[in-house]
Structure formats: structure tokens, C-alpha cells
Amino acid sequence: MAREVAQARSPSDAIGHNLRRVSQPNDHLVTRPRPVWPAYVVEGLTSLGTSLLMVGIFFYTEHHFGWGPLQNFCLAASQGCVYIVGALMTDRLAAVMGRRRLLVVVYALSALAAIGAWVARSPLAVAGALCAYTFITTMSWPAVESLVASGVDAQTMSRRVGIYNLVWAGVNGVGLAVSGALIEYWPAGMFIVAASAHVVSVVLLMIRSDVEPPPGEATTSDHVPPEPELLRVRTLAMWLSRIALPATYVVVYSLMAMMPSLPVMQQLEPTYRTPLASVWVGARWLTFLLLGATAWWHTRPMLLLASAAVMLAAFLGVVTGSSLTTMVAWQLVLGVVMGTIYSASLYFGMVLSDGSTEHGGYHEALIGVGCVIGPGAAALTQIHWPGDIRAGIAAVTTVITLSVIGAGFASVKAPRRPTS
Hints:
The protein has 16 helices and no strands. By secondary structure, it is mainly alpha-helical.
């Protein structure tokens, strides 16, 4: 369970008239504010690389290697396995090296892994290099999330997390959309662009040593603890979002792995497939914009249960739609609910742990769990029913359904009164 670290509250966090106002919000201010923009920049550059080599790559393997659903599902599940390990290793490595130094090493190695995938001569070697890339790059996210979210009150943290989500999701959408053109006209660009982005991140972090406070310097203030009712709501929201979070990445990686094989996509060239496949990313970005600018969702945990249920329907709408119009419409719905769940998982995990790298690692590891379970289940169906995309859809639908049931069970069992 997340540590119940004291947090300052904004008026937007109030729940009715039972919550007390913080009388002295300016007490014990951080004496040396850290610049946050370098963290946003390196996150955007990272997202550019991962949009090409962890999402758009499935269109590359289908086009250049002739891979079908089975091979793409196996690649996605393999990336998910190393994703989990990398995410859970980050906190310990950051404690030893410091977050900035860790990021410098991670981005340098990510660039090398991307180049390794470029020069690899066989599909199997490319897949191995891509898994190495995923393992290394995953370590960056908990560290960057912690740099963005630590040492500030709940209102500031919500704003920072909102900007962080806008940065990575916006770049991710653009990267996925243009990956089709790279695949068709400059295949090497998939790897060269990713490697170049990580090199720029290394240079920036070596120049900006002030992105992380010196060891031992206080970065947090003595905040007034949240009211028991607010703590209960935050904790419930965190658990609901984190139960549903793996299912969102069951959808992401299963959908991306199977989308090149969907009949509605087969009629299009790669240049046009990836923009159509990224509609949900745009909808998710708009959701991040709304949630980052507002706080009404901070005290409505049941919104997360509803989002999980709608996600199931939206996934089925995307993969079974008989026309491009239907598929696009359902993608819009899918992006909204997935953005809601992701925002809640990151925000409530950070606000309950004062932006710790450890909880950033948990958040990312749950994403990795989704990357394994969804594509892994779908890959098993392809062994028994080769080339039958409907079997893969059924497997993924089952996993999402179980997640919705789990979220519903958690909401029923959650205490209805403050725990203290």
C-alpha cells in the first residue's frame, strides 16, 4: 500500500464541508526550486523513440518481415516481460546512482540498443535488440516521473503530472502517426530517429545538472496530513486505477500487434495505416489535457470503474468494426477511458507517496504486466488457431473482462467510512 505521506491540499481537493482548509500554505517552502522543463524534454524525446520501437514496430515487422499476429503477439509479450523487470529495478538503481546519472546511462544504452536493432541482420536478432531496448528504456520512466512529481503539494503535483502526460502522449501520437511513412520510405529511420532522440537526452542531462537536488537537500515541506476521508478516497482511487491499468496496456499492445492484420486495415498502405491507428492516442491526449487542468476527478473514484467497463466495449468496437468510420469512432472512446485510468494511476500513486521513484516503478511495472498478459494470451490462441484473429480478440476480451470484474470487486469491498 502506498505510503501515506502528508500532502498539502488545494481547495479542489476538498470533500464537502468536512475537510479543513490549510491555514498556512506557504510555510516551509522549498528553498531551491528545481527546473522541471528538462524532465519534460527528455520525456518527450524518450516517447519519440518508444513510439517507433515499442508501438509502431509492429507495422514494421508486418511490412518488412511478413510477420502475422502470432509473431507480433510474441514480440509484444517478450517486451512486456523485460518491461516489468526494468521498471522494478529503477528505484534501487536510482538510490545508488541518483536519478540524473541513471537517466544519462539509460539514454546512452537506449541509443546503442536502437542502433543494434538497426544493424541486426535477422528478424530474431532485431527482436532481441528491441527487447534489450525496452528493458533499458523502461528504467527511465519511474525516474523522470519522480523528478517531476516529488517535493510539491497535491495541487502542483496534479498540474505537473498533467503536463508530463501531455508531453509523452502528444509525442507518442505524432511518432506513431509518422512511423508508417518511415516504414515505407525510410525504414532505417525508425531506429536512427529513436537513437538520435536518446543522444540528445544524454547531452541535455549532462548540461543541466540542476534537474535533481544535491544529496541530502530537503525537497519536501512539512505538510498538513490529509483528512481521513480524503485519504480513503485517494487510496480507493489508486487501487481501482491500478487494477485497471494493466488492462489498458493489454489493449494497447494487443491492439497494436493485431491491427496490421485487421481486415479493415489490410486495404491500406502503411503510410495511411499508422495515422488511423493513432486516433485513440489523440483522444487520450485530449483527456490528459482536460484532467490536468481540472481536479473534479480527484474525488470520484467510481469514474475509474465506469472507465474500465467502457474500455471493454470500446476495444470490441475497434477490432470488430466493419468500416474505418466505426473503428475511428470507437478509438475516440477508447482513448478517453484509457487516458482517465492512466492519469489516475500515476497521480494517486504519486500523491500518496510524495512522488517516489518506487511508486513510479510500480506504475510502470503494472503497464508491463498488461504488455505480457494480453499479447501472451492472444499468442497462445494463435498456436491452436493460426491466423484466426478472432481467437486473439476473444483472449484479450477475456483478460479485460476479468480486470473489470476485479475493479468492481475492489469497489464493493472498499471501506465506506474513513479508516482513521
